[in-house]
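Notebook entry, structure prediction.
Reason for the run: the old model in the group folder had no record of what sequence produced it. Starting over properly, with the input documented here first.
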Amino acid sequence: MITVNCSACGGQPQFDDSESGKKAVCPLCREPLILTPTKSCGALSAEEQMAQYEESLKETD
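New structure, fully documented this time:
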């Protein structure tokens, strides 16, 4: 399982490893996500989360 950080709600939903790199929606707030595992040293920085979120918005247009 991979855990991702949702930049919209702060949740940390888990997804199957086979979904890594794909698009999904956060099951907690329904915002779009790109499924990349969190860094092993901790959560993504706010800047990285925002960049990831903005990229997911571009791809859904």
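Summary: The beta strands are 2-3, 14-15, 23-25, 32-34.
The old model has been moved to the deprecated folder.
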